[in-house]
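batch job 7 of whatever, protein = Branched-chain amino acid transporter
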Amino acid sequence: MARNIYIYLLIMAGVTYAIRVLPLTVIRREIKNRRIRAFLYYVPYVTLAVMTFPAIIDATGSAVTAISALAAATALAWFGGSLLQVSLLACAVVFLLDLMIR
């Protein structure tokens, strides 16, 4: 059975368009429910985290160094470290642990 790529592209375009248009047409007024507003506020952050976390674990080639760097970077960020400090710490942890493991 031959598959037509244009049918797949048409379905994908329709679903993508519907996802963006339906909220604009169905919800005409401002959302006042606090729970729904809070949920919608955090959706981009959760999406970014879900996309980034697996890449962090696979980036170093070793789950031990990746999880250690993630923990160290998260702790420094929690206590107010800048983005540069957090990224340098994560790189240093991966580098030092990689030297110790080999």
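notes: Residues 5-101 form one domain.
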